[in-house]
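User: Sequence in, structure out. Go.
Assistant: Echoing your sequence, followed by the structure tokens.
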Amino acid sequence: MQRRRFTTGAISALAVLGLVVSGCAQASDSASQTTATPPPTTAAETSSAAGSSDAPTSSSEATGGSGGSSETTESSAGGDGLSPTSMSDDPKPLIAIVSKGFQHQFWQAVKSGAESEAAKLGVEITFEGPASESEVEAQIDQLTQAIAKKPAALGFAALDSKAAAPLLQQAADADIPVIAFDSGVDSDIPLTTASTDNKAAAAEAAKHMSELIGGSGKVALVVHDQTSASGTERRDGFIEWMEANAPDIELLEPQYGGGDQAKSADITKSIIAANPDIKGIYGSNEGSAIGVVKGVEESGATGITVIGFDSGKAQIDAINSGIMAGAITQNPVGIGEKTVQAAVAALQGETLPKIIDTGFYWYDKTNINEPQIQAVLYQ
């Protein structure tokens, strides 16, 4: 099906103005943290990690229109097939993990899962990422430093696969197995990718948006980036579902806020100013979604359906208060666990599946307190 023409109106000029104003306040320093020996898992982390076994291995959808109980669709028998055993090497093998970010609660949950699994499997990890998900150069510097440590294995979630390609080749030439996670890497070098099926998850968000706004009206997308696989897949999955299933919904041209709350809020206010009849706005990750909520609140607009992605305290509060209709949550603790499991399995000579699907859920006010949802939410 041909993609419908996007309506741009006055968005572009206003959005650019918003980006310039908010960009001045963005911090540029990178943040990272190294864990030499993974600490014992805290009570909250133990609850999340234990609960993640109930998370779906492919996809999940809520029944009953705007919510209802969750229904899990399991993947084929045998799961991901990983069966690593605890490492007995002394010193412990080092797994260097470089993520797309560090400040969002999502990445802290991934880190928690990785640390917990490292402790179980007898390996050491480092976990670092740039301060914001727009800092490609900072991530490349961190990847360079990680490879220089000559780790036994490398976990990597790329902000820009093309920029990282030479370094990944360097790792491959040094026989360092690479495990991709989250958005993954657009390359054949990683042995596997532990991630959410982002296109399917975004399609689920689009389906709920269509239902909630009655199948017609203007809908905007505030996307975290257009360079990572997660950014493009969460954009395209949403758009493609709408094009195939909701002909009366008019999609505005996607806007990109770098996952930054302030930028995404300014973009949202520009969208609303240019389109006072807007009916729905979708934010493609934690920072984008929180920015959309803030933008709607600061604009004073009412009657706009907001759908987010990921969780975190701000989104959970927004759903409970009714400002946000619902969101897609991944299984971030599970992503961290599976990344370490896959790295250890690779070191032990196991053949890895190309994709390790860590699953997703739709959640809203009607099911947010269900045990299987609580197990994969993070605050």
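User: And one key feature?
Assistant: The longest helix spans residues 105-121.
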